[in-house]
Amino acid sequence: MRTEERRDLTLATAGLQVRADGDAAPGFTGHAAVFNSRTAIGNPLTWGFYEEIAPGAFSKTLDEGDARFLVDHDTRMVVSRVSAGSLRLVQDQLGLAVDADLDAELSYVRDLVTNLRNGNITGMSFGFQTVKDDWQTVEIETKDGDTAEAELRVIREVKLYEVSAVTFPAYEDTDAGLRSVGVALAARGDSAAFDRRARYRPELLDFRREPGETTRGTDVTQPGETTGGRQARQMELLAARYRLAR
């Protein structure tokens, strides 16, 4: 089971800026992801884990995909697109670099430029599916000076759908953080990991898939959502929309 995840960077880390090339139309540059940067997804000492994106994780998807640049993940506000030649995505030493043309004839693009210049846009994000990852146990130092074990997830390959300029990053203590943990654990298929984390966040059991189960695997819900395959249908639509092989 693979469903969409999102990861955010703060404005300072993403390095977002509006560029102006003389009399040419303005453009947008920054990074949507940073390699080898350890991020806490949830609380790694209780129900979450640490995560890093490995260099090269976007190689295949950049060759095969047709990602869009959106505002706040809203598909109605498409700023640029790879196949249109207005969005350029490359992997550099830092991570996933974004260079986008900005068409000022679009009202929401004018709003985006103004919000960037005024500091109202607070970060960069990307929507993806994990294709390959691995897990390992790491030792960390706690705030009181003790040591503890936590899990580290290293993402090796992703299927990229879109990059977005975002107003509100999804902090790890929000529902978005909980969903990311549930998605990762479900893809991993580790029942023991679910049991350990459910002691702290029982809502994670909403994402659990039992061995040999076929119906729930295509009917994953977010906490508080109804059943009926909402996530599975959403990913089918996303795969078709972004012309990515399943």
What's this entry about, in short?
This protein has 246 residues and is an alpha+beta fold. It has helices at 11-14, 59-64, 107-118, 175-188, 191-198, 230-241; strands spanning 5-10, 17-19, 27-34, 39-41, 49-53, 68-71, 74-81, 87-91, 95-101, 123-141, 147-166. Strands 1, 4, 5, 6, 7, 10 and 11 form a seven-stranded mixed sheet that branches. A four-stranded antiparallel sheet has the order 2-3-9-8.
**Helical percentage:** 10-25%
Low-confidence stretches: 211-234
Q: What series of H and E elements makes up the topology? A: EHEEEEHEEEEHEEHHH
User: Given the C-alpha coordinates, what overall shape results?
Assistant: elongated
Number of strands: 11
Radius of gyration: 19 Å
Number of domains: 1
User: Structural class, from secondary structure content?
Assistant: alpha+beta
What is the terminal separation in angstroms? Answer: 12 Å
Q: What value does the average pLDDT take?
A: 82
Strand-residue proportion: 35-45%
- Summarize the biggest pleated sheet: 7 strands, mixed
Q: What is the number of helices? A: 6
